[in-house]
DNA sequence: GATGAATGAGGATTCATTCAT
DNA sequence: AATGAATGAATCCTCATTCAT
């Protein structure tokens, strides 16, 4: 089983070329965004000629989308099963754990998602309509069903609580630089991973008013 | 007094050219990042020839930095005064209020900061060393002085609490698209601004273990 | 009396602006050629705004020509008087001395002339037709009148002898870098000036077959 | 065997693209200098898109250096073998002949070298340290060994004699325009080539005091 | 006369993409 | 599949020149 950040390392030479391209692209796009990365650079990272990329992906845009698609698929699966089962604190904790687990497996994807959110890109549009809105609705329903939540937040807070959950989940990846520079800890260590999971449960519990 | 998002609208034609360039650049850089914006586009937005930009800023990079510098100055002032006075819950709430206030005044800057954090850019480096680290140290000291905090979090959580505060503050701007698409609310409305401030206080209070 | 290379130093602030522009332009054009120098750079050297140049010269090209014109005028006068008097070795030596003298007074002009020759520029065209060809004709007639020359060179050599004279005269300026780097002497020193004059006489005497 | 000025004509369409670029660049750089030539113009001369140049040379500067490098290599070889064998008048004449021969093969290079000397460029720096200074030292030693030279020049003249040799060699190429305009002869004709060689030997002999 | 700002053309270089080999 | 070379558009930036102030 690959450890966290598996794709953050340069990939084995014997992986399929398409996979190696995806891996390199994922890292670079996560580091500098779509516009900040050139096809040449990706090719160079893979040890490939610039034009060879186009034997595997019809365009830079489609390569980018393939990266996202590959990275999002596990989340889609997690969310799909969750949407119907969000019944109580335990289910919520289980969901959180699976999400955090997956995020730590592909931290570049976490960054890419945050970039997409910042860019308000097309991918976000599709993502929103298909996965996030349903999950949000389910999540709100679940929260509404918990008396402690209803009592501890006013209606107006709820969106922020949800957004807060998003940031609690994704933040550590997008803010890795901040952690390193300001807090002085290596953000993607196994140590931090454990701490992230623990914190998430405690913080959620607290935000949920003790439930 | 200019309302929230003052600089989000194209600026008056009678403002100084440099200011109009800064305004246009701020909006575009916030929307699409440094690499995603061309000098030509900025110039076009101002109604200027491409080369005329260089009568006011020696390079695209320096224009970008000027945007950040202008946007960060108010925060610098807020943080400067705060660093010495972070004495208790009231001081904390006051600081939060001033920060949120400023963020809502210049939401583009909030996005730009999040982009800088994602990019781990040079600006972040300077920012970290000069202001964020000191503020973090002061903030941690303040938190350590509060018994409720010490009791309610384990040592390991603290960095996440701090990061969480960052996300509570900045998140709504960077995630505006998410709010609009998933939650279905207009994220930069006056309504949301009020809700943001209220939520922040409540959430902080709660994260601080009731203090 | 100004020493050699008078115009090679930045000029007095109280000289007329046009003169200061000419001085700066002369130095820069000599160093890097017409295409290698920008109007902005000249203006900067004079401490003037870019546009101010155009209060004194209608275009970069015309400034360049003014530099040449100013620099060439003394030579024109020398050559004009010489063309009619080139009667024997003494007249020849006197002409040489006056030419070398003038060249050392304005070494930048010497370089500029060599650049013009390399570029086969328009200035060279006018120069050739008006002064150089007449002087050449007169010079050849003078040489033909000297038995030692007739005897010591074949007809075919004469153009090269003349060209050689040109290079003996102008070479040390255009090749100043060579002198400095290869021979290891400071090429524009007073010492070298004296040596140049002495050498020229000896070399000419020798090339002229002892006359 | 290619005649003189072989590279002065636009090159065969079936030569390698890099070679055709080098050929076009050599001609243009010789005519107008580095700053006076645009990449677009070189590309146009080769019938290539502007950007295609960069498939063969990473920058204009490096293309320029490649032109020089290619042109200088034969001289390097000539000088390398000569530096050790400069034993007497015959060796000197042989060296001269080989140099003139090579210069007439690549007259553009002769002009380029003169431009470099005028510009005091980086190439000149490297050239000086590696080839010219050693050759100069060897040449001076050779001259010092010849009694006629010692007797016919004063110590102070020697650098000028050496510079004079340089100009006798390279002058006709850089001054081609002068020859054409003032003397009225076609400077790069086979006729002139022969005359150049003959003159050089005679002039050298004379400058060397008959040796 | 000087200035700062404007302009359009052109500077070198990079871009994503195509295509023959 | 992979490559090297080609392309046209776009990149940032500098150019000479103009003009209102």
Greatest interface and its residue counts? A-B, 54 and 54 residues
SSE succession of chain A: HHHHHHHHHH
Low-confidence stretches of chain A: 1-10
Oligomer: homotetramer
Number of strands of chain A: 0
CATH architecture verdict of chain A: Orthogonal Bundle
- The CA-CA distance between the termini of chain A, in Å, is 34 Å
Instruction: Give the CATH class of chain A.
Output: Mainly Alpha
What kind of sheet is the major sheet of chain A?
Answer: none
Helix count of chain A equals 10
Provide the structure class of chain A.
Answer: mainly alpha
The CATH homologous superfamily of chain A is called Tetracycline Repressor, domain 2
CATH topology of chain A: Tetracycline Repressor, domain 2
Strand proportion of chain A, as a percent range, falls in: under 5%
Overall 3D geometry of chain A?
A: elongated
Mean pLDDT of chain A: 86
Helix content of chain A: over 70%
Radius of gyration of chain A: 19 Å
Tell me the number of structural domains of chain A: 1
Please sum up the structure shown.
The structure is a homotetramer of 211-residue chains. Chain A is mostly helical and 211 residues long. Chain A has one domain (6-207): Tetracycline Repressor, domain 2, CATH 1.10.357.10.
């Amino acid at each position: 089983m690959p450890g966290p950040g598996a794709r953050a390392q340069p990939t084995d030479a014997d992986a399929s070329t398409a996979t190696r391209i995806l891996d390199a692209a994922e890292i670079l796009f996560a580091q500098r965004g779509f516009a900040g990365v050139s096809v040449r650079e990706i090719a160079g990272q893979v040890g490939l000629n610039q034009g060879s990329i186009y034997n595997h992906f019809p365009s830079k845009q489609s390569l980018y989308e393939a990266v996202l698609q590959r990275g999002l698929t596990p989340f889609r699966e997690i969310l799909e099963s969750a949407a119907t089962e969000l019944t109580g604190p335990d289910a919520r904790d289980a969901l959180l754990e699976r999400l955090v687990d997956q995020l730590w497996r592909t931290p570049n994807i976490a960054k890419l998602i945050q970039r997409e959110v910042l860019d308000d890109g097309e991918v976000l549009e599709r993502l929103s309509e298909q996965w996030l809105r349903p999950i949000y609705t389910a999540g709100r329903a679940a929260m509404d069903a918990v008396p402690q939540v209803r009592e501890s937040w006013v209606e107006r807070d709820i969106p922020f609580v949800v957004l807060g959950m998003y940031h609690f989940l994704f933040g550590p990846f997008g803010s890795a630089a901040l952690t390193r520079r300001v807090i002085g800890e290596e953000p993607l260590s196994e140590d931090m991973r454990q701490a992230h999971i623990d914190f998430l449960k405690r913080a959620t519990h607290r935000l949920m008013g003790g439930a």
